[in-house]
Amino acid sequence: MSINHLTPVQLRHAAQLKEQIAKLQGELDKLSGSTIVKPAAEKIVKPAKKKISAAGIARIRAAQKARWAKIKAAKK
């Protein structure tokens, strides 16, 4: 059965069961002297930043210079 088809009562019960399992697993680990380190949370991987090529930067600079030249010419 998919989790999407569960009622709110069933979801709450499932969450309680999961909490109980985690608690009991912790107690079992303490009793057995287990030293397994569990990750606190999954690492969030950020997508790599897109870098502008040198040619792209040159095009942006040229366009900006053209805009400023147009503004300065209009003031004269």
Shape descriptor:
elongated
Counting structural domains, the number is 1
Sheet with the most strands, sense and barrel status? none
Structural class computed from helices and strand pairing: mainly alpha
The averaged pLDDT comes out at 85
Any key phrases for this structure?
76 residues; 0% strand
Structure, explained:
The chain has one domain (3-38, 50-75). The longest helix has 25 residues, at 8-32. The chain is elongated. By secondary structure, the protein is an all-alpha fold. The protein has helices at residues 8-32, 54-75. The mean pLDDT is 85. The chain contains two helices and no strands.
Helices and strands in order, then pairings?
Layout: H1 8-32, H2 54-75
Question: What's the quick description here?
Answer:
With 76 residues, this protein is mainly alpha-helical. Helix content is 62%, strand content 0%.
